[in-house]
Amino acid sequence: MSKKKINAVLFDLGDTLLNFGEVDVSAVFKEGAKGTYNFLKKAGQSVGSLKKYTFRNFLAIRWRTFVSDITGNDFDSLELLKKIGKKQNYKLDETQWQKLAELWYEPLKKFGHPEENIKETLSKLKQMQLKLGIVSNTFVTALSLDKHMSQAGLDGFFDFVLYSYQVPWRKPDKKIFRYAAEKIGEKCENIMFVGDRIDKDIAPALKMNMSAALKQAYTNEGKTCPPNAHKIQKITELPTLIEKINR
């Protein structure tokens, strides 16, 4: 276990700060398609049948996800929606485009909840003079995610928030960890990374000489935590863990 002093904590978002659990992706996508389809119809847009609308967006997402898997670059979902809309001749103002993006995220958002006492835990970490940040792999627009965090009571605690679509890399690329360290203003050896994925969060953080804490989640069930990483059941364990490391 690392004995280096921790001055900052970087968190993953999904299934770390916000617990989603196993989600029926197909059902969530269909619900998002129905909600956005109705929104566009009410806005006077020509959208055709719901079936064609759903399939058109499904193909676009699948293709961009495939490209991202090859390039290691996440895409901006809002820009993708605008690209699709341009082909369909949608006439929306910026507020309507942002609302459309929110409606696509809304069905998934219902599943994402912070653990109990998360605000008290984050407050304690800030009282310990620790810098806090978020590094999340996602193509969901920042507007939707920031709003979700605010509604979950997670806003105001973080010095730095980074969504992978905003930069040319995503985890586990070492460049995004280095970039996050620079932004939060600490050496990697003085940062703890907290996440639920061994492959995307823990292993690359350790390679960057960060301390790492694996949070229990369905994504790591049955998997062995690296011996040089810490393992926690809940975020509420972090203050005690970091105090122990820094003592």
Describe the structure.
- With 247 residues, the protein is α/β, with parallel strands linked by helices.
- It folds into two domains: 8-20 and 113-246, HAD superfamily/HAD-like (Rossmann fold, 3-Layer(aba) Sandwich), CATH 3.40.50.1000; 25-109.
- Helices cover 47% and strands 11% of the residues.
- The chain contains nine helices and six strands; from the N terminus they run βαααααβαβαβαββα.
- It has helices at residues 25-42, 50-71, 77-87, 94-109, 118-127, 142-151, 174-184, 198-207, 238-246, and strands spanning 8-11, 131-136, 160-163, 191-195, 211-215, 230-232.
- The protein has a six-stranded parallel β-sheet, with helices on one face.
- Helix 1 (25-42) packs across helix 2 and helix 1 (25-42) runs antiparallel to helix 4.
- The longest helix is centred in the first third of the chain and has 22 residues, at 50-71.
- The model has no long low-confidence stretch (mean pLDDT 95).
Describe the structure concisely.
With 247 residues, the chain is α/β, with parallel strands linked by helices.
